[in-house]
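Figure caption, in words: inputs first, then the predicted bound structure.
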Amino acid sequence: MRILLIEDDPNLNNQIKTSLEDVGYSVDTAVDGEEGHFLGDTEPYDAVVLDLGLPKIDGITVLEKWRKDKKNFPVLILTARDQWSDKVSGFDAGADDYVAKPFQMEELLARIRALIRRSAGHASSDIECGPLKIDTKSNKVFLNGTKLKLTSHEYKIIEYFLHHQDKVITRTELVEHIYDQDFDRDSNTIEVFIGRLRKKMGLNLIKTERGYGYRLSIERE
Ligand code: CA
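Bound structure (calcium ion present):
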């Protein structure tokens, strides 16, 4: 899952980025509204964390522009504690949730998890596909109840598949959702990761859709 973080306070920006990466997200950051708007306009994100008070273009305007352009990724806004009017204008501009500063990082992470699973159509924090289950709270994946030992890239891929099961996912889509923009992306490595995941799972839950990509599904071929 790939997240865009727009926050102009360098310390807070860094702190949030590190916490997001620690739990397995790929993160792109911006420190002003112009750069942030551009990234959201051009890259596919699974969620956006948007500060409202930003240089160049303020957060509400950034959000309004995206929504006008039909960008429908979930957006969590960071608001000042006592500014109830910020929350109202944020929701009216198209925000999905908010956290008031100062906040506990655990709360921000929990809200982001909820936004991502909700936008993929899942209500529970455990997502299952047949014998496969992900606990998004602890970033653990289980097969028939046994925890799978996964590298961070393998985890990112299976997490994306489980959120979007039964859908055909192209290699390009996977690359765009598991790597941040600074990463040296190579879509050939995706095939290697998929091969390793299949081996670790010992059964073919990840089907190849020839000419299209992959699909995580329990139905028989
Ligand atoms: Ca700010």
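The chain has a mean pLDDT of 94.
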